[in-house]
Amino acid sequence: MKMNRTIAVLAALAASIPAHAAGKINVVGATEDLAAIAKEIGGEQVNVDSIAKGYQDPHFVEPKPSFILKLQKADLLLVVGLQLEIGWLPPLITQSRNAKIQPAGPGYMDMSSVCEILEIPQGPVSRAMGDVHPLGNPHYWLNPDNGRRIAKALADKLSSIQPASATVFAARYADFDKRLSEAEKGWQAKMAPYKGRKVITYHRSWPNFCEKFGLNVVEYVEPKPGIPPTPNHTLDVINLMKREGVKLILVEPYFDLKAPDKIAADTGGQVVVLMPSVGGVKEITTYFQLFDYDINLLVNALSKLK
Ligand SMILES: [Zn+2]
Questions:
Q1: Distance 210 CA to ligand 1 centre (A)
Q2: pLDDT digits (tens, 9 = 90+) for 238-251
């Protein structure tokens, strides 16, 4: 008798809760970029949180106990993959003891599997030199074409978790796709006068971005991804810039400006601190604002160069 009454009370309670409140899907993005796209597609049907902050180097994030709490509640974990998070995320996932988001679980999504990946190494790969991109370039979210692929995969995944909201997710994806296509036209138009312009970047964060927006990356301040600048390599970069008339050095916000500043001083070049992620600065809270910010900064710098 008592059991039946409990079930009846629970059933009445469930019926009184609006479907969308009862069914919110907890999504955690390993980075703020993936979380931002999840908000676009999930809308009211999801709670979205993220782990790495956009102003941090996503290869090297200091693990915190609060990250485990976020992962314990997650229905869906979005990762960049290609070993971007290998230094900090796997132990957190294990410690969360959340079966859904373990790498083989139904709530683990590696977004690299749906995106166009550049710089995939040919032949055997050695970690001896400290290369942090052994499986290809993990900074692929910096091309809106990949943002669109991530959004589509998310719409499909959220629909499989909550079929009753499938039409909502499909509509939100269609809207995102439309707004992104319109924004891309504006970004492309702003960058068009500078097509083919040569630039130096600190880390290999920008191949997808530069391919999309027509910049030509000719060298890096790092001798290899994840390896700090050396005097010899810095000299090589300076000589190359002088030889080829390169003036722009793009630097992520979490790197020391000493080497870039020296290179700029020796070449008459200019350092531009470009944001690789949503949350890099306070005013970048959406995937759209990320490109708005970077393209405005670039156009401003390029328009002042000869
Ligand atoms: Zn990297």
A1: 15
A2: 999 999 999 999 99
CA 273 distance to own-chain centroid: 17
Query: Per-residue pLDDT averaged across 13-18, rounded?
Result: 44
Q: How far is CA 265 from CA 12, 235, 256, in A?
A: 72, 12, 15
Cα(8) to centroid of ligand 1, in Å? 54
- Average per-residue pLDDT for the chain: 92
Region for 214 from its dihedrals, namely left if φ exceeds 0, alpha if ψ lies in -120 to 50, beta otherwise: left
User: How many whole angstroms separate alpha carbon 51 and alpha carbon 66?
Assistant: 9
Rounded distance from Cα 305 to ligand 1 centre (Å): 28
| pLDDT score for 23 | 85
- Rounded Cα distance, 70 and 89, in Å: 12
Task: Say if residue 126's pLDDT is above 90.
Answer: no
Query: How many A from CA of 255 to the centre of ligand 1?
Result: 12
Amino acid identity at 135: L
List Cβ neighbours of 144 (8 Å cut-off, separation of 6 or more). 180, 183, 184, 187, 212, 287, 291
* pLDDT over threshold 90, residue 192: yes
- Compute, in angstroms, the gap from residue 16 CA to the centroid of ligand 1: 48
